[in-house]
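Teaching assistant's notes for section 4

Start the section by putting this record on the projector. Ask students to predict, before seeing the second block, whether Selenoprotein W will look compact or extended. Collect guesses on the board.
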Amino acid sequence: MALAVRVYLQLKKKLEDEFPGRLDIRGEGTPQATGFFEVTVAGKLVHSKKKGDGYVDTESKFLKLVAAIKAALAQG
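Reveal the predicted structure now:
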């Protein structure tokens, strides 16, 4: 399994454990790049690698994503 796929699956599981049944997490490998990763909460896109949010590859980036998810859940 490619590294990007493993990272995606680990992050997806970590977020699903943090917010069970509350997120729509999508990822897709692409031939041109390592793929994209998006998290949608209550119909609002809170993270998109494809649209410039980048990799969630540090704890600080993960905590920023968690904060964005919590804010979206509070709104909606």
